[in-house]
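Chain and backbone:
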Amino acid sequence: MARSLIRLNNKHISVNQLQIAEGVKLDLKLISALVERWRPKTHTFHLLRGKCTISLKDVHLQLGLPVDGSVVTKSIQPGDWEVVCLDLLSAVPEMIYKGQIKMAWMRKTFSELVKDSIEVQREQYARAYFFQIIGGILMSAKLQNLVHLRWLPKLVDFREADELSWRSTVLATLYREMCRATQPVKIKIDSFFLLLQLWVQF
C-alpha cells in the first residue's frame, strides 16, 4: 500500500486519525441541524446555551494539520487534465467530469505498490495517497465518491506541499460551505463536514 511510504509525524494527520475518518459515515440529520443554527455573518452556531464555533485549534486537535506556512490558493484550471494526470500519476482515468475523477478509480489504480518499484513510482503512489486524503477526506464532496483534480498540482513537490497551511484551508473551506448550505436554494452539502461531525461527537 502507498500508506507504508508515508512518514507521519505529529504535524500531520496520523494513520489512526485517517482510519477514524474513513470509518465514519456522515450523519446528515446532525449536519442539517447544525446548518440551521449556523450564522454566516459571525461564523458561529447559535445554540440554546449560547454561541460557539469550530476553530483552528479544533482542526489541529482533530486532524493534526499544520497551520504555519503559505496560504493554499486555488490552482489555475489546466486546459487538459489528462496531461496533468499523466505527468503526476502516470495514469489517466477513463472519465474526467468537470475536473473530477472517481475515488474508486484512484483506490483501484493505486491499491498496491510492487516490491521492485523505482523511486518515480513510489513518488507517484505517495502523491496519489496524499491526493486521496486531501480530495477525498479533507475537502470531500457530499457523497465522497469524486475528487477534484485541482488539488493534484499542489503535490508536484512534497516539500512545498508540506509548507502549506492546510489547517486554515480546511477551516476556511468548511466555513464557506456552511455559509453556502444556509442558502435556501442550496440542495447538496459539500466539503469536509466530517470534520464538523467529529468535532461535535468528540
